[in-house]
Amino acid sequence: GFGIAVSGGVDSPHFANGDPSIAISDVLRAGPAEGKLQVNDRINSVNNISLENVDHSRAIQVLRDSGNSVHLV
C-alpha cells in the first residue's frame, strides 16, 4: 500500500459541514507517504481519475487499482 488511510465520500462525509471530499485520515510512520502527505490533505484525483463526488468505496478502489505508482492531486 501507500501507507495512508482515507475517509470521506458522498456516502460518508466526515467533516462537520458535510463536505464529501476524500481526505487523508492517517499516514503510517515509515510508510511511503510519510513526509509527503498529511492528515486532512484532500485528494482531488488519482492518476487523472477524479475523486470529486464519489462514494468512499469508489475512492478506495481507484487507489487500489493504481498499481505501484500513484499521482495524487
Automatic annotation (TrEMBL):
<dbReference type="InterPro" id="IPR036034">
    <property type="entry name" value="PDZ_sf"/>
</dbReference>
<protein>
    <recommendedName>
        <fullName>PDZ domain-containing protein</fullName>
    </recommendedName>
</protein>
<dbReference type="GO" id="GO:0045216">
    <property type="term" value="P:cell-cell junction organization"/>
</dbReference>
<dbReference type="GO" id="GO:0005886">
    <property type="term" value="C:plasma membrane"/>
</dbReference>
<dbReference type="GO" id="GO:0150105">
    <property type="term" value="P:protein localization to cell-cell junction"/>
</dbReference>
<dbReference type="GO" id="GO:0050839">
    <property type="term" value="F:cell adhesion molecule binding"/>
</dbReference>
<dbReference type="Pfam" id="PF00595">
    <property type="entry name" value="PDZ"/>
</dbReference>
<dbReference type="GO" id="GO:0005923">
    <property type="term" value="C:bicellular tight junction"/>
</dbReference>
<dbReference type="InterPro" id="IPR001478">
    <property type="entry name" value="PDZ"/>
</dbReference>
<dbReference type="GO" id="GO:0098609">
    <property type="term" value="P:cell-cell adhesion"/>
</dbReference>
<feature type="domain" description="PDZ">
    <location>
        <begin position="1"/>
        <end position="73"/>
    </location>
</feature>
